[in-house]
Amino acid sequence: MSRTSMIGKNMPRIDAVQKATGQTKYLPDMNFPGMLYGKILRSTEKHAVIRKIDVTRARELPGVRAVITGKDIPELLYSFDQTVADKEILCKDKVRFLGDEVAAVAADTEEIAEKALKLIEVEYEPLLTVFDPEEALQDDAVLVHEEKNSNVAIKVVKDFGDVEKGFEESDYIFEDRIVTSRQAHCCLETRGCIAQYHTDGKVTIWGPTQIPHRWRKQVADATGIDRGKINIINTPTGGAFGSRVVMDTKIPIAVYLSKFTKRPVKMVNSREDEFNVSRTRYPFIVYLKTGVTKDGKILAKQARVIADNGAYCDEGAAVLGFAGVFYSVLYDAPNVSFHGDCIYTNNQPCTAFRGFGNPQMHYAFEIHLDRIAKELGIEPKELRLRNANKEGAAKATKANINTCTFNECIEEATKLTQWDKKYLEFKEENKGKEVKKGIGMATMLHTGFTTRFFGFNATDTFIKLSDDGIVSVITPIIEMGQGSSTGVAQIVAEALGVKMDDIRIINTDTDITPYDLGAYGSRHTVVCGHAAMDAALKAKEELLVAASEMFNCDAEELDCINGELFFKNDLNKPLATVGEVTEFTAFKLGRLISGRGRFVDELAPRGLVDEGYSIYIPTYSFGCQIAEVEVDTLTGEVKVEKITAVVDNGRTLNPILAEGQMEGAIAQGMGYALTEELKIENGRVVNNSFTDYKIMHAEDLPEIEVKFVESGDPFGPYGVKGIGECGLVPTAGAITNAVYNATGVLVGELPIKPEKILLGLEEENR
Amino acid sequence: MQKGFTYVKPISLSEALQHLNTNDVIVISGGTDIMIQLRYKSISPTKLVDVKDLEELKLIEEKGNTIYIGGAATFSQIVENDIIKNNFPTLVEAAQEVGGPQIRNVGTLAGNVQTASPAGDGLLALCALDATVELVSEKGSREVSIRDFVIGPKKTIKRHDEIIKCFKVKKQDWDYEKFFKVGKRNALAISIVNGIIKINFNEDETIKEARVVLGAVGPTPKRLERAEKYLVGKTCQEETIEELKSIVSNDISPISDIRGSSEYRKHIAAVNCGRYIKLAKGGM
User: From CA B190, how far away is CA B124, in angstroms rounded?
Assistant: First the structure.
């Protein structure tokens, strides 16, 4: 028999059957004996001083077990990043957005808890408000955090080269102001948790999370409880997209409620909570200034980003960090300047969202680039190729690009779509037509493996084989729908030589799994895959040694493939199954087989002090998406006919899962482009349901063609790169450019709704 | 706190009618609107009477010159029914655009009419067909024209003791008819504007008779009688279309909401009426 590789094969997900048959229990399905239900009283003011909170009547209601306010808990400020901690878990003196947490109740039933909330009396003294981040920067704007001297919450400044000199040398300078929208994650499972404060002072929290180990720190920071006493058990996760990185305030509140009642407390968001208060993608206002030579060479790029931080700090630094790095590295300009600020407002706070700040910046710069192309009379593909990145250190940023597939991705995407032909033909075909065709592209640069932002980027994995050959993989891999646990199982099956069916993934308990940063930034299959591969290879060494004792030969003579042992020189004749070897090892040799794997990122500790971008991103993924659209010029309606996505994923681990990731991300990117926008008017969310907040339905999706360019990354296990975010990053830019190509209207404000396109058409005709 | 309610599933229409003795009893079929109203506590019934499987309410039949469409006929049923397909193509087009496939599989025509959304696709199609609503109660039955039946958003003249038994629609012949919906792309399952245009031509290509009905431009679907009268005797040329567009935008006063501004609604109502009149000529 020949060696069949598990890598690159369409393998069904290991969790598919239980999920498809509805057997998987999500957090809302879980109930414990004696469990109470927690509810939060939220501020009815957008910005106000709290004069008085009276909980007497609520406490007297039968069935109510605890009512707590800021006075009942330690005075601590919390944020995902404690250096910018600014949030009281329960507001004592002041509320800063509509929905800010003021008090909480634990009761025997949800109904009683809700009734108790209505009995809490709060007196507010309203303050002036500010909702527009640019207004919040004015001298006379009210301060959202009165103790700070401005509304600037977080600042990220990165300058490379000399942009002023670059502008002077340029033949043309282009400037644009581009605005992106507030996108909601829209997970099918709303946020929630169950907390149990044990009598010995230990705390267990069940909930869907992307980063269980760092939730321990977050809970500790927010409550003052010793981190060593906190255990997180991550439950099956119904979608995440960045929304389950930074914990929700519900979690420390549930911990407090459990502490006061000594009973488990469950808190689950309603869909309205999810839209009203649960944090969204950071909306950006982007000012771009780009200097080019007459033949389209970019000499200087400058971006000023004003992001709406909302009332409290969250992932702003990472969001601006992602925005800055990919903006600065892509197109390899010699002079680059990125200045980004997160500005406090009295809006709902924002958080991480698939791609962090990169989709915002890609939309802005890719459409800006198409305008430059048009005004210079250079074809968009050509303009991009003239500014292509190259392997090695990038000009300005010194970013280390170890596999550069910039040109390949563009060439492949344009070939698949017959770009050269359509780009010219559509213009002819459109003449005199009411419905016009368009084609547009966007290049993509994203991380193939997170950042070294935290100064640590590693993990371990433990593998143990039982006496019957069942392989348990103790790994921090997070399964949030993306299929990464299947990916890790495939890597173990390949490296150890066992069957997929014999692998058990143990990944849900921080007391068991190795420390790890979590699943975000397209990192998890790479980091956990690496450690798992290492563990599997170590276990295989032990397995082959044991087998050599069983067959009286040298371990080097043996191999293990797909659950069976062979002599390397005779792969047609299996000697024994893995189970037979493990049984022999246990009962004849008196021992077991295991392996400890380790992934080390030695450069990571330097990531904390790296001033530039030389080691910030371990590996880059390039990509290119092309959108084909039809625009009804009478109504402004856009119909996306096809999206072609080419992406460098290093190597494909599992084609159906990889394509699924891309398709899901593209659907979310289409929503970002066309319909998704959480509207906040004067501090109040006006579309807090799926009736009014429109995500793409299956029926709305066009043909999506996904093609992988396999660069074989030297960093990833078997050459893989992460692709969790890549699919979404360029989509809005590609669609907007396609509409520009069809109509001549470039809409610089997401989502590009029909009304905006129509307005542009009217202006053009004027 | 919300009181509980009981749920009954009668086996006949007469049994169902017996339950409708107070105004907090609500008839439910597909539940695609009722369930949402329950969730938002905008209704608080004491009893739900489920009629979705009552065969008497699901019939679609042809009797002479009239077609009877049972109130509990689902949109999927309507889309696939030969009688409807042969006679009322715009009703099929409208039914195809209601919600998503899951909604169409359970949502019913009577539910769509009783919900009385200004943007209701099924309601619009029935208005353009001049349908008659047959209501039954223990006291007997009565017939009301659909336009008199719906009196405002979420408001009809149905009494609490009545059930919409069926819609009676006269067969009709149009040289051209078209349903349109702006907002159907991009998951906008609820119309920004929907409309139906129907035209009969004289032999000399002038318009003999026209129907112009628009949804989501007022509290109930609106028949644009001035536009219809204007079209009679005209040919489908540029001048006619321009004048028609201005009549349409003058005669409607849509609201602005999250889905679209009043100005945008006026614009797309006008351009679509113009577009389909133009196509009517080509369609001859």
Answer: 13
CB within 8 Å: B268 and A634: yes
**Element housing A374 (H / E):** helix A358-376
pLDDT tens for each residue of B23-41 = 899 999 999 999 999 988 8
CATH 1.10.1240.10 holds for B176-282: no
DSSP A719: G
> How confident is residue B284, by pLDDT bands cut at 50, 70 and 90?
very low
- Tell me the nearest-neighbour CA distance from B270 into chain A, angstroms: 10
Closest residue to A700, CB basis, from B185, B192, B267: B185
pLDDT beyond 90 at B265:
yes
Q: What residue in B sits closest to A697 (Cα-Cα)? A: B187
Measure the CA–CA gap between A80 and A185, rounded to whole angstroms: 18
- The Cα A481–Cα A49 span in angstroms is 42
Distance CA A18, CA B27 (A): 37
Which site among B186, B238, B242, B279 would you substitute to test the A interface, given the most A Cβ atoms closer than 10 Å to its Cβ? B186
**What single DSSP character describes residue A721?**
-
Give residue B190's pLDDT: 65
Calculate the dihedral angle through the C-alpha atoms of B117, B118, B120, B121, rounding to the nearest 10 degrees: 180
User: If you measure CA to CA, which chain B residue comes closest to A110?
Assistant: B1
- Shortest distance between the Cα of A634 and any Cα of chain B, in A, equals 6
What is the model's pLDDT at position B282?
62
Inter-chain Cβ pairs, chain A and chain B, closer than 8 A: 58
Touching check for A29 and chain B: CB below 8 Å?
A: no
Confidence at residue A14, expressed as pLDDT on a 0 to 100 scale: 95
Strands B163-170 and B66-70: antiparallel
**Residue-by-residue DSSP string for A443-508:** EEEEESS--STTS---EEEEEEE-TT--EEEE-----SSS-HHHHHHHHHIIIII--GGGEEEE-S
Which chain A residues touch B259 with a CB distance below 8 Å? 692
Percent above pLDDT 70 for chain B: 95
- pLDDT mean by block of 10 residues, chain A; 766 residues: 74 94 95 98 98 98 98 96 96 97 98 98 98 97 97 96 98 98 97 97 97 97 97 96 96 98 97 96 98 98 98 97 96 97 98 97 98 98 98 92 95 98 95 96 94 90 98 97 94 97 97 96 92 98 98 97 96 96 98 97 82 85 98 94 97 94 97 95 95 89 97 88 94 98 98 94 88
Residues of A within 8 A of B267 (CB-CB) are: 635, 758
Pick the CATH number of A31-127+188-240+244-276 from 3.40.50.2300, 3.90.1170.50, 3.30.70.100, 3.90.190.20: 3.90.1170.50
Label the pairing between strands A620-632 and A471-474.
Answer: unpaired
Q: Which fold has domain B55-170?
A: 3.30.465
* Residue B204 half-sphere exposure toward CB, CA atoms < 13 A: 5
Question: Any idea of the CA torsion for A731, A737, A739, A744, to the nearest 10 degrees?
Answer: 170
Q: How far is A499 from chain B (nearest CA, A)?
A: 39
